[in-house]
Amino acid sequence: MKSWLRQHSAAFLRALKRLRQAPLNTLLSLVVIGIAMTLPAAGYVFLENAKTLGESAAGTQQISLFLDMDARAATVKTVERELEILVPGQWRFVPRAAALEHLQADADLADIVAGLPENPLPDAFILEPAHIAPDELEALRARLARLPGVAHAQLDSAWVERFAAFLALGRLMVSLLATVFAVGLIAVTFNTIRLQVLAQQAEIEVARLIGATTAFVRRPFYYVGLLQGGLGGLAAGVLLTLGLDALQTPIARLAALYGSHFSLAGLSPLQFALLPAIGAALGWIGAQLSVSLALRSHLA
Amino acid sequence: MNMIVATRLTKRYDAYEAVRDLNLEIASGDMAAISGHSGAGKTTLLKLLGAVERPTSGGLIVNGQNLLALGRRALPYLRRSLGLVFQDQKLLFDRSALDNVRLPLDIIGLPPREASRRARAALDKVGLLEREKARPIALSGGEQQRLAIARAVVNRPTLLLADEPTANLDADAARQVLELFAAFNQVGVTVVIATHAPQTIPHPTRLIVLDHGRIAP
Ligand SMILES: Nc1ncnc2c1ncn2[C@@H]1O[C@H](COP(=O)(O)OP(=O)(O)O)[C@@H](O)[C@H]1O
Ligand SMILES: [Mg+2]
């Protein structure tokens, strides 16, 4: 265990030394990796904020639930019980008679309503779900529409659905962007390691000849990939935090124009920590690929 | 006890047999000189003994290990028990003399302090302690060769293999280098030296002459 630790810390130190020996290359790689990780991460943060914005707007959304015309009191009771389980937030029952009275109270409609042979309105529930994302709201509507005794469930505005579709598209784009940049990051690491292997040919050959194991030769390169990716991820986290900070004031001002107190949410500590972790993992993968290819001839 | 036992040892490069059907025994504690004209197969034989190259066929036991049966993963560990001085030395020119000598100790994972201490002791033995910070390029030919020897012995090997270690040295430097090998041999290290000039080797216990990959009669 102790010797394992020593071998790894020695490899780590040698990796640090190699990164320090070529400071310009290291810096350029870190900039490239940092930017490559900042873009998808920024997209993600933007979407998260858009989602929060959508949720706070959707809090005032309504779903109208119209029952079958011939629904009886028993049906109303069953639906009510289902709503207690399914709906987060408030709802109220509007009996068909009350709905008719509501119409009659409207001066313009009173004449028309008076001319009807019978009450054309069904019993209804008006729901105001709280703390629910736009896409979940649509799912809830669909679920409610399938309840027995329910004729029709209506989401009161279409923008919620459009917003949900927009979010889905946004997520897809961020995922694609992240994939593309992940491949880029692996490629950058691959190249860094390839150049280092070339530069260390003599050392690798001698080390092999005097008893170095494959692991001894490979390990420092893995750590170079790991370190470079991790530091690049850290740079991305810092860049993103600085960028969001810079946007904070203008966005608050913009929100104030619309009478809102919206403020941009930054990275949580966990999300921040995730950036170097992902960078390190991708760097390690790039190093693995590169070392496997570049050292193939040395393993005899 | 035998340090080296080769039976019908053959190494073929493409169609050319650089070492062919060679039978050889070298006892522990021997000071063996391998001579022969250029192209006779001296380097190839040393590479086989040092587990640098794999035999094409035949049997080879070095330091009690059957090299033909040895798996790839075991090879590095066998190499650590040997000390190799290469014909082209293979020093690392971007490192100090001390770091060159430390390399085998770093490979076996010795703690840095202990590694430095032992590397300095090895440099001291070859008379290069004052030059520990020097890069190999700043050393003379004889000093470079002694540095290569220090790196070969720092692991305290039981077998020391040297390929023409005096080839490019003047008489004085050559004598110094050969005295070093004699000194290691005196404390029990088996030494095998390939050389054009076997008569310069002090007190050889074995003299092996190669001719076209075979032992000359
Ligand atoms: N890697 C190799 N590939 C092809 N032929 C080789 C190789 N190494 C050595 N030889 C050939 O094997 C023969 C013996 O070479 P070597 O062992 O270097 O001789 P010596 O060291 O006695 O001068 C030579 O003819 C040489 O050309
Ligand atoms: Mg030779």
The H-and-E topology of chain A, N to C, reads as HHEHEHHEHEHHHH
Largest sheet of chain B, in brief, is:
6 strands, mixed
CA-to-CA gap between the ends of chain A? Answer: 28 Å
Spans of chain B of 5+ residues with little confidence (pLDDT < 50)? none
What is the total tally of β strands of chain B? 10
Per the principal axes of the C-alpha atoms, what is the gross shape of chain B?
A: globular
- Output the structural class of chain B: alpha/beta
Work out the radius of gyration of chain A.
31 Å
Instruction: List the strand order in the largest sheet of chain A.
Output: 2-3-1-4
Q: Briefly note the structural class of the backbone of chain A.
A: alpha+beta
Q: Count of helices of chain A?
A: 10
Structural summary, described in words:
The complex is a heterodimer of chains A (300) and B (217). Chain A is of the alpha+beta class and 300 residues long. Chain A has 2 domains: 2-56 and 162-294, no CATH class; 62-155, Alpha-Beta Plaits. Chain A has helices spanning 2-21, 23-58, 73-86, 96-105, 107-114, 134-145, 159-199, 201-209, 214-257, 269-294, and strands spanning 63-67, 89-94, 124-129, 150-155. Chain A has a 4-stranded antiparallel sheet. The two termini of chain A are 28 Å apart. Chain B is α/β, with parallel strands linked by helices and 217 residues long. Chain B has 2 domains: 1-81 and 158-217, P-loop containing nucleotide triphosphate hydrolases (Rossmann fold, 3-Layer(aba) Sandwich); 90-156, no CATH class. In chain B, the strands form 2 sheets. Chain B has a 6-stranded mixed sheet with strand order 6-7-8-3-9-10, sandwiched between helices. A 4-stranded antiparallel sheet of chain B has the order 2-1-4-5, covered by helices on one side. Chain B is globular and about 45 Å long. At the A-B interface, helix 1 and helix 8 of A face helix 2 and helix 3 of B. The structure holds adenosine-5'-diphosphate and magnesium ion.
